[in-house]
Amino acid sequence: xxxxxxxxxxxxxxxxxxxxxxxxxxxxxxxxxxxxxxxxxxxxxxxxxxxxxxxxxxxxxxxxxxxxxxxxxxxxxxxxxxxxxxxxxxxxxxxxxxxxxxxxxxxxxxxxxxxxxxxxxxxxxxxxxxxxxxxxxxxxxxxxxxxxxxxxxxxxxxxxxxxxxxxxxxxxxxxxxxxxxxxxxxxxxxxxxxxxxxxx
Length: 200
Known about the structure:
Layout: H1 2-37, H2 44-83, H3 90-128, H4 131-137, H5 142-181, H6 185-195
């Protein structure tokens, strides 16, 4: 019992040291990343390739997901608004919630699940095959070559994909509103413009 009591602080200390060491390595990684984002070589070819990978190849799944998220949101809101005979507000409520919260969050989950997982698997395979060590031996900085193009491409494409998600989600809600709740198109659009602002 005495040995366990004496070893417990040592165990806690080792856990804390590992935790802070990992956090410190992450901060150094972020520092290197920001350094290479603003210093040459600027690998435009790799950035364009990653823009296509993150953006174009995610567009179909974003489109399908947004259509169904908007439709489901419209169905749920329609049930509530029908109680108050305010079905015309379905588009406005859907647009507001998609613009402020749901659109960027859902879009982020989808892009992370599709593009982020593929990037992580690709870089992990390169690490196992010692390709990253070979890059360092040839004088190529792996952060500049592998990480910066992916981070820049993802940062540029996420707002565009979130905008697509918002647009298609509102279309999904519009289809539900017109087909199931007989909402007038002009009323739907007017309420949407009235409640959803550009700043949203």
